[in-house]
């Protein structure tokens, strides 16, 4: 189900913006003229046979070792493009929205994002951004809040 349909079904207020196609969350932030710390990107990892959607700021990377320790699991590695294409059949590859619950994935959000009043993310398409309140996002997705990212310099 496309993200807009899901948000409408759940009666969630959102804004949608169209822009030139972007292929990273950081490019989308630049295109929308908002800081990378205000754009959420999903990164899918696998550990002990389970996939997790990690949601972090566009200008950050996942600290796999910190994540492994907090999950209490074995080795953590990034999902491959092939795995991503299989998990997110309704989305353009690389434009997945950070709503793991829509895809049967446990969602983890980095605590650095949770103080923002809203979340901006890809809609499932490279040329659309969606903004919803952090409160609505957390109620809808129910992510686990952990600390697993570091800022790129």
Briefly summarize what is shown.
The chain has 153 residues and is of the alpha+beta class. It has a single domain, classed as Alpha-Beta Complex (YbaK protein). It is built from 5 helices and 10 strands.
Keywords:
YbaK protein, 153 residues, 3-stranded antiparallel beta sheet, globular, 25% helix, alpha+beta, 5 helices, single chain, 5-stranded mixed beta sheet
* SSE class: alpha+beta
Strand content: 25-35%
Low-confidence stretches: none
**Gap between N and C termini:** 36 Å
How would you characterize the largest beta sheet? 5 strands, mixed
Number of domains: 1
Nearest-angstrom radius of gyration?
A: 14 Å
The CATH class is identified as Alpha Beta
The number of strands is 10
Strand order in space, largest sheet: 5-2-3-6-9
Query: What proportion of the residues is helical, as a percent range?
Result: 10-25%
């Amino acid at each position: 189900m496309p993200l807009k349909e899901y948000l409408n079904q759940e009666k969630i207020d959102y804004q949608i913006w169209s822009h030139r196609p972007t292929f990273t969350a950081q490019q989308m932030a630049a295109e929308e003229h908002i800081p990378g710390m205000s754009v959420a990107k999903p990164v899918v990892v696998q550990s002990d046979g389970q996939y997790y959607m990690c949601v972090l700021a566009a200008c950050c990377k996942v600290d796999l070792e910190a994540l492994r320790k907090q999950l209490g699991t074995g080795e953590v590695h990034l999902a491959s493009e092939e795995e991503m294409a299989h998990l997110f059949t309704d989305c353009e590859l690389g434009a997945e929205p950070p709503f793991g619950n829509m895809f049967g994935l446990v969602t983890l959000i980095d605590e650095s994002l949770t103080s923002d009043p809203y979340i901006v993310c890809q809609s499932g398409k490279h040329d659309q951004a969606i903004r919803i309140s952090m409160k609505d996002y957390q109620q809808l997705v129910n992510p686990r809040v952990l600390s697993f990212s570091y800022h790129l310099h």
